[in-house]
Every structure is written in C-alpha cells, then in structure tokens.
Amino acid sequence: MFDPVIAPSGTLLGLLQRGRGDGTLHALTAPRAEALAALNHCVLRDPRHDWQVENRSLYYARLYLDLNGGLDAIEAHLFDPDDLADTDESRTGLALAVLGHLASYGRRDALALLRRYAAHGANWAWALDELALRDDDAGLRALAAPVLARFPADAEGEAELAAAVRDAFEPRPWRLWADDPRVSVGARVRAAREAGCFDRWQRQLRRPGPARAGACEPCSSGPSRASNAESRCTSRPPAASRPSPDPRTGPRSSRPPGTAARVPAAPRCASSPTARTPRRST
User: Fold this and answer.
1) What distance in Å separates the CA atoms of residue 43 and residue 122, rounded to the nearest whole number?
2) What is residue 261's DSSP assignment?
3) Which terminus, N or C, of the chain has the lesser number of Cβ atoms within 10 Å?
C-alpha cells in the first residue's frame, strides 16, 4: 500500500481526499471539469491511510452521480497494463467499490465495467463480490466460464479453486455455478466447495484451544502450582527444629480464650468471578 499524498485542506482536492461533507458542496460549485479531475484523482489514487477500516466509496459514488461523471478514467485505470504487475487489492479496490455503488443506482456502464473486469482483471474476486450483490442470475452465469478458466485443470489449479470458493465473501455466484449442468462448470464448483468445507473443518481441528483470559500464572498452570507447593513444603523447617509448646500453658497465642483461629484470606486470582479484568479498548 502506497503512502497517499494529501493536498492542503483548503483546496477542493484536499477536501475530497479527507471525505469532508463540505467537499461535496465545493465540488458542485466548482467548474465541472475541475471537480471531475479531483474526484478521479481520489478514486484512482486511494487517499485513505487505512483502506480496510475507512469507508469512502459511497461518498465518491454519489458525487459521480451529482456531477454526471463518466467512467473513462476508471476504465483506463482498471485495464492498465500495471493491473497485471501490481495485483494488490488497494490499487483497484476503491474503484471497484465505487462501480458497485453506481451499479446499485442504475448505472449500466458501471455494471458492464464490473462484468468485464471480473472476466479479465487481476482483482477479479473483488469485482465478483460486487456483482454478487447487484447483478442478476443471467449475468453471473455468463461469468462462470471466464472465471473458472483462471484455474488449470490439475491438482494445483483445483486447490486454488477450492481456496477461492472457500474465501469468497459472497457465495451467490458459486452457488449458481454449482447448479450448472455443464461438467466443466457445475462438477468443478461442487468439488471445490466440498474440498473447501473439508479444509475448513481440518483447520478448525488443528486450531489450539482457547486460553483462559485473565488467568494468573498459579491458576493457569498446574505444574507451576505444584512446584510452588513443593517449595513451600521444602522450605518449612523440620519438626525437630521447631520449638515445642509449653505443656503447662499450651501453644503460645495472643488470641483471647475461646476465640477461633483466623485463617488468612487466599490471594484473589484474576480468574475468579469477583476479580476485575481490564476492558479491551475499542
């Protein structure tokens, strides 16, 4: 992920890069060509410092609708030769998400771009997830052949296909393709889904058991507790070296007669119900 260069906050580009609400107002009052240039700059060069936690696609998609902007710049960016060299999702993720929102608003050109990129683009899985939420069954079925052609019909290709089916965010296309009567489509997808489910089951079996959160060391480990008890027993002086009580007065004690001995309270463990554990920061 590249480090974005943010323009000053007083400029139109700086406002759009920061996702400010007044950036939309400035873009609508600015010359249309200047506003579209700043908008395309933001969509094609993601200005977010962490694109996984900050949502900006709907903000830009609505601005495209307000400006009635074309998608030629996005098309040139998606099908640039660099798309085959730089396969990182951060390069095309924002543009694909913007196209997904535009397709939801009825932009047929955005839907066509998503279909074309899912068939030929490097970040095809993201485009397929966008289409799974917006495209109809006929459009998704038409993508079965070009998507499955990415995976060779050998052991390595089938393993990659199973991983793609297992890790897909939206399972709708794969469910449609599993019902395809063609052996090269339906049979392969069904076998990949079964292999993905088996692999997920194996990973769950290999996962180590959860550790008790907040447990202190003596309570969370049995051997250490036994070793501590053993050290206490070995450090206790033998019976011969301990002073014997006076037979006339009994054991020495400062308690008044008739009172019971007080047992010292056990140290509070962090795993006890009454112990306070720090809250996880959100």
Assistant:
1) 18
2) P
3) C
